[in-house]
Design a protein that fits this description.
113 residues; globular; binds adenosine monophosphate
Length: 113
């Protein structure tokens, strides 16, 4: 897999506002936030996108959501929030290292654009 900006952040070669780190993922604030809270939760494992996920990675995807829940509590998102994984060109994915968006602090709309 090509070296992405997220891999550089994980490896400590690029700066980011990191809010959480553990043995399986790193979470940092999006540099172009679309809401008052916008955090990206990124697995250390270099999986390009959701479509590349192996069955054995099911626990990892679950872990990203547990981390999202904990960060949402820390961020005080008591009225709700949204988690999103953009997949592929039609899904709006721009960085080819799997990541979960945690977005909150304002009322979300549906359907998304
Ligand atoms: P996606 O379009 O789902 O692939 O999301 C990629 C996200 O990464 C976008 O919301 C970008 O604003 C964000 N992003 C790209 N580069 C950086 C960076 N260096 N630090 C933080 N967020 C970034």
């Amino acid at each position: 897999m090509a070296d992405t900006i997220f891999q550089k952040i994980i490896d400590g070669e690029a700066e980011a506002d990191i809010v959480h780190e553990d043995d399986r993922c790193v979470a940092f604030r999006d540099r172009n936030p679309v809401a008052p809270t916008h955090i990206l939760i990124v697995p250390r494992k270099p999986i390009p996108g959701l479509d590349d996920l192996a069955d054995e990675d099911a626990d990892l995807i679950g872990h990203l959501h547990v981390v999202a829940r904990d960060i949402a509590r820390e961020e005080g998102l008591r009225d709700g929030y949204r988690t999103v994984i953009n997949t592929g060109d039609d899904g709006g994915q721009t960085v080819w290292h799997l990541h979960l968006h945690l977005i909150g602090g304002r009322r979300m709309e549906w359907p998304p654009g």
